[in-house]
Amino acid sequence: MAEDNQERRYRFGVFEADAGTGELRRQGVRLRLNAQPFQVLLMLLDRPGALVTREEISRELWPEGTFVDYDHGVNSAVNRIREALGDTAGSPRFIETLARRGYRFIAPVERIAGGQILVAVGRTETATQTSAEASPADPPPPAPTPESTAPSFAELNGKTGFTVLATEEDLPKSPDAVVQTLYILFQLMYLGFYVGALANLAEIQDLLSPLPRADFVFGAVIVTAAILIPVRAFLLCAVLFHPPGVRQKLLVVWPFVLVFDELWALSPFLLLHHISIGLALACTALLVYSPFAQRSLVLMGAGSAAKHSSIRGGEA
Least crowded by CB within 10 Å, which of 88, 135, 193, 229? Predict the structure, then answer.
């Protein structure tokens, strides 16, 4: 950035960021924040209220020719900032996520540069008195308290973009091998359901016979199992071989698979000849959550190529 880092400090809420020393402090107490997340924080503070795109952050953090998973790196940096500030993606007080575009710093920022205090709110920036010109008779403004920076109940209820589904920022960072293994086990579990159902059609038909429209339900079991076997094969191959853009493909397929997964959550009831109704109900309750767990695993990196980085002069 154009300004000398030694001349740039920012105050927001109970926090202060010093670009010269690379320190973030809360009411004078230094907080732990590594170099790359601090660099992203400075970009946001330098343009309060304005969109800072993911591409801009990537260019700032990693020079051309650096091999790194940029999406994961940007997400990780923003998550570290939110942890230090006690902020959340769902109810942001400082950093707001603009889906698939970037981030925006939404809190008022007091910027100190070249001996001049600039109060930045949104996209406007106005100069105030310098510290040398300030009248000694004027009492200093009261320091903000955690309560004054906390969003009110009405503000929380008025937030837009709230979603029940998890976002990347909401999810923990986990080893690629663990995420990929869990996703593969989910697919194998469902393949077992489909193959087991098709292998025991006579027993299932006998179980369904007392139901109204038993023939329709029996036919639905056969048709959906036959359709979903190749779908699961596709998902397994996508995760095992890491084709380009696999995460986007898996997220596009997910709503379609969700409908069938919720129907097949009832599959434990096809085993009532072998298990009790209570156990079938318990298994069904777990299976209702299963497709949402799979979506979270995709966001956490299932199917993405292993992250190889050769970052120069920074943290991975």
Answer: 135
